[in-house]
Amino acid sequence: PIGSRRALVSGEGLLVDTVHDEVARACARYGGGVRRAAPGGARGLPARGDHAGGPFDLVLALRAAGPLPAVAEQVDARFRGRRGRADDAIGDEGFVIARRDGVTVVLADEPAGLLYGLFHVVRLGEPAFGAARPVEHHRPAMRRRMLDHWDNVDVHPKSGQVERGYAGGSIFWRDGAPRGDLPRVRSYGRLLAACGVNAVAVNNVNVHVTEAHLLTDRLGDVAAIAAELRPYGIRTHLAVDFAAPIVLGGSPTGDPCDARVRKWWAEATERVYETIPDFGGYVVKADSEGRPGPFAYGRSHADGANVLAEALAPFGGVVHWRAFVYDHRQDWRDRSTDRARAAHDHFAPLEGLFRDNVILQVKHGPIDFQAREPVSPVIAAMPSTRLAVELQVTQEYTGQQRHVCYLAPMWSEVLGFRPFGPAGPAVARIVAGAAPGGERGTRGGRAPDEGGGLVGVSNVGDDAYWTGHPLAQANLYAFGRLAWAPWTDPAAILDEWIDLTFAPVAHGDREPLRRALHAIMDDSWRTYERYTAPLGVGFMVRPEHHYGPDVDGYEYTSWGTYHFADRDGVGVDRTRATGTGFAGQYPPHWSAVYESLDRCPNELLLFFHHVPYEHVLHSGSTVIQHIYDTHFAGVEQVAEARSLWEGLAGSVPAALHARVRELFDEQLRCAKEWRDQVNAYFFRKSGVPDARGRRIP
Ligand code: GCW
Question: Which SUPFAM superfamilies is this protein grouped with (predicted)?
């Protein structure tokens, strides 16, 4: 480990201090040593020679800290030579790493880069100090890699301490007050930085009355959190109430076009920056599920977002404005309203109207974080708007951290999807700001150089394992890694996570553990999909808490989430020809694919089409037989995963093993419940027996 090595840390700044302290802490544990070079103090130090602090095995240096040890100068020269004179920047958060002459060298231009470089060395493990390594340049694909906490300050009668939280209480708040465990907040910052996350919103997007006050008289509570996260390069953001001028300021109106409202936001924001100079910005859920918004004043969401953006702009802050706007009081009898259409219907017409520091935050699918959805058509509809994609790391609809469901493969599909067709840019490039390329305007006189990035709804709480289910940590890790490097193979990310997590605690040979965890986790999202929702049908869950099956639970409700199963068939007709027209919200390539019964991918068939149970899939199976087969298979896979975990007793700490074993018991019970309810439901509706004669209750 790093801690047994001799290290030199060179440079100044808060995050360089963090790097130094990290290395020093590791050395105190493992017997190595670290030297902090004073400005200019590394001058002339030999690569590996006899001098007070050396020889060094590891050099972590800001290039500007200048004259560097000879080996670091050589690495820098290599890097510059390779890049050519015109572009030799390492970048704000980037780092260069190489190993030569027995020294591992990490160089950065900014302190954040050095911190990420350090965590990269940790991730590499012993090989970081093995054979020589060529110069590698690492930079995040996305500048914004943010986690949103749906944490309430007060316990809320409906959503509790953490809305959709499955990992205990909030790490920030408890019973109306700050939780007070600041060292834990700092450890959280450390954990997130190690995953690559650099922004956190500390309260629920459903901003209730207590939480609204975080913006004004309780700003000190937010500042205290920001102070713990800052040393790890994490900016603090706040979810705010759109009606704050009324709720907090006593204004008679919240109309974004009213001068008094604009003034209120400007002044409130100025005070925020006086208290937290590096404050990240606001997150807003407006006109959504009962939250206030600009519609009440006949104003658009551009008007709403821009007034906050205007207040934040002088300080470099951004507003994350959520596109999750739909009618949750729909009449289920009304077949003309389609919730899937809502975000595009509301936002696509506003293209070009948002200020440059507005980031439109779009859920990855058009509905709501189901186990399978197509990619939201909004992502292709707003080329001059900064877009962020929102993923749900917390497993609201994917097993609530009682089921193993490694989500990286799903996210990877989303990020790799090309909304304009095979020749167009992938989602990852669009939200990184790298595509569709230079089209972004210079409205407001600023030319932004970045996209909206990736946002995840956090799955972390005050649970001892952070995430309730210990294996759900892999989702947190994968979220950060994919935001940094979206093209990374999910299995490779899992491999990193296994090493980082289990190296310190596993007993004996780690290879069997690694193999078992891959077998358990690699395909666990598809397994979950198999025993829950077939072919793109969603929301067959228990209303309100959303755990476990209830095929008709949402069928006759106001939420706009229906499957329309009858005796003949199932699915939602979202075609242009005969349905809601949702398929027409995509650019031509995908619009044509989804419109066509033949070309529509199996896994989304029932999202786009209502088909008879005997409809034949590309696989050759019928829809009804597919439902039976996948539900039986899904349960078998859970049983297999459970027995693989059983086999790991003795390889991992006993308490960890016991926790996961209990959770597997619940997962298996629940998966059987899903299988039997879904199969029985469709058997009773269709009357078609299972071709393989298995028992359907
Ligand atoms: O998925 C739904 C959840 C709500 C959540 C909402 C949202 C924070 O059921 O609990 O509210 O999405 O994303 O705003």
Answer: (Trans)glycosidases (SSF51445), beta-N-acetylhexosaminidase-like domain (SSF55545)
